[in-house]
Write a structure and sequence with these properties.
alpha+beta, To_sf, Bactericidal permeability-increasing protein, domain 1, Haemolymph juvenile hormone binding, biological rhythms, seven-stranded antiparallel sheet, Haemolymph_juvenile_hormone-bd
Amino acid sequence: MTNKNIILFLCVCVFSGNDCRQFRMPSFIKPCKRDDPNINECLKKIFETLRPFTSKGMPEMQILPLDPMSVPSVTLNQGQGSVNFTALFTNLKGYGAKNYQVQKIIADLKKKSMEIDLYFPSFRIESKYEVNGQILLLPIKGNGKFVGNFTNIQTKVKIGLEYLEKKNNKTFIEIKENKVSLIIGAVKLRFNNLFNGNKELGDQTNRFINENWRDLMQEIKPLLEDTVATIVMGIFKPLLINFSMDDLFPI
C-alpha cells in the first residue's frame, strides 16, 4: 500500500533525560526475574494485575488512563485501489480497553523480542471527522460525528527490543520495532452529516459501508495496524524511559 501517512499525537506525558527516576514500582507488582524459566506466565500475571488500572491509570508508573483512551488526532491517507480517501479524526475517545484478555505472551530477553496476544470483546470509538474521497468506488464527503463499534478483536503485538546503557551506568530498554496484526470479528460504522447533511445520501452511504465492511477493512487494515502500533509505542515509552532493565527484569 502506497501513499499512506499516519499522523498520531498521543496525550502522553513523557519525561526525557536521566533525571526522571522518581517513579517507583508499586508494591503489588512483582517484577519478573530475567532468567525465570516461567517468565511468560509471570508477565501474563502482571498484565492481568494491571487490568483494573486501565480506567484510572497509574501515575506512579507514568501510565495514563486507557479507558477511555484519548487521542487528539489521527489522519488516514489511502490512495490506491478501490479505497481512495483522506480522513481526519479529531478528539478521539476509545472505550473497551479495560476488558482486554491476555491470551499469550512469549518473551525472549536474550533474543530481544516479545510477542503479546490480546483479545478485546468490543471496542468503541467516538470522534469528530472530516473525510473526502471514495470508499469501494463510492464517493464519500462530509464532516461531523463518527462512531465505530468493533467486536471480537484479536490483536497480536510483536516487539523488537534494544538495550541501551545510559550515563548513569544503568541499562534501559527501548522499542526498536513494533508490529501489530488485527483480526476483527465485526464492524459497524456511522458517519453523521455526510454530503452537507443530505440524510438520504448519508444513510445510503453508511448502509453500503456496513454491508461491505469486510472489503473496506481489508483495504485499510495496514493503516489501522500502523495506527495501533503507534499507540502501543506511546503507551510503553514512558514506562521504558523511567524504569531501568534492573527495575523491570531484576537478576
